[in-house]
Amino acid sequence: MGETTTDLLITGATRVGGLADEGGDLLVRDGVLLDPAEAGRDGSRELVRIDADGLLAVPGLVDLHCHLREPGREDAETVATGAAAAARGGFTAVLAMANTVPVTDTAEAARHVRALGEQAGLGAVVPIGAVSKGLDGQELAELGLMARTGVRVFSDDGHCVSDARLMRRALEYVRAFDGVIAQHAQDPRLAGPDACCHEGEVSGRLGLAGWPAAAESTIIARDVQLAALTRSRLHVCHVSTAESVEVLRWAKQRYPQADITAEVTPHHLLLTTDLLAGYDPTFKVNPPLRPAEDVEAVRAALADGTIDAVATDHAPHARHDKEHAFADAAFGMVGLETALGVVVETMVRTGLADWERVVEATSTTPARIARLTDQGRRLAVGAPATLTLVDPTARAVVDAADTRSLSRNNPWHGRELPDPVVATVAAGRLTYRR
Ligand SMILES: NC(=O)N[C@@H](CC(=O)O)C(=O)O
Ligand SMILES: [Zn+2]
Ligand SMILES: [Zn+2]
């Protein structure tokens, strides 16, 4: 972050994870946190104050998994609108999935996404590189060349790397540069081309073609063994079933030397498959919404660390892709702006997690998985001024039209949820203020 002439003084916030003797005041100058006693000493600098009495200051949120749609589908989202939605959601860094048009499968494509993020200036936009060329699951993409531009996370998300041999080679390859393979765990043969939801009692009643929960957990069982075999890093995207949690719990015990991590989305922490009763395609998502037992299992796993992180899987879609009969609509829902609220609703208000655990799952751990060294840092003098101010008690009714995203496929529309994000500061810059 370059030189600035304005200081930002945040007063009265409680730092989550801060030391007991650290006061609540924070001074932001040139992208760094300074001793608040410095505020106003240099008369040439303007001082902007934020009164944060009663608020929490947490390290800026990091989203390991979102879809920003640029290049190719700028009608659904652009990097700039996605970054604006992220800032409003309290995020200071987001990782943009590779399933754009064209796919982020070359160094040049990765540089392009990063540059669009820098132009937007609303926090870090970090490209995820594809595992296979064109996401076709056949041939490895330019993993090494993308790594040289700083890419550490590789994923064919939207598709599963279903060929075990290709998955093994990808894991072996990225080990050299400390990369990680983020897998969309879903056996394509079990999921089939026509399936559109979770296979079970609800799909049977509604006459919708489902796919079994085993399509997810069987791939995870295979991949954790490949991660152990290759001694490489595996990250499991959007874990959604109780069996997947059981496989992960087993794998983390069985292979303590392996680096296996997993994420859950906010929607899988709260929404259930019953919502499909109205055939509203807003609730069509991949992985599909699951029964309540699965929701309970992923919450417990997030609480005890079996699931390491929360990631939004923000998947904006234009109206003409979403407004179809359920079976024909696109998979995906937006989520950047509501993510923290849903985590507070499902984990904090239920007593399953405290704010320390929320910070770990939404900031510290995702930053570590993506190897983003200037994100997820404790808020101390000398650290990057990358933080989010949170009102732990605020609530609001979600309005899909009140958004910085270009898309409206919002499953929370009309629902009252915690509305915690008050301000976001990314590398010293105020990127959102309520
Ligand atoms: N989650 C979704 O339902 N859709 C994602 C793809 C994905 O995450 O698998 C998308 O790109 O729209
Ligand atoms: Zn996916
Ligand atoms: Zn995704």
UniProtKB/TrEMBL annotation:
Zn(2+) 2 binds at D157, H184, H238. InterPro entries: DHOase, DHOase/Allantoinase_Hydrolase, DHOase_cat, Dihydroorotase_CS, Metal-dep_hydrolase_composite, Metal_Hydrolase. It comes from the Bacteria. GO terms for biological process: 'de novo' UMP biosynthetic process; purine nucleobase catabolic process. Zn(2+) 1 binds at H65, H67, D157, D313. Residues 56-244 form the Dihydroorotase catalytic domain. Pathway: Pyrimidine metabolism; UMP biosynthesis via de novo pathway; (S)-dihydroorotate from bicarbonate: step 3/3. Its EC number is 3.5.2.3. Belongs to the metallo-dependent hydrolases superfamily. DHOase family. Class I DHOase subfamily. This is Dihydroorotase. The lineage of its organism: Bacteria, Bacillati, Actinomycetota, Actinomycetes, Propionibacteriales. The gene is pyrC.
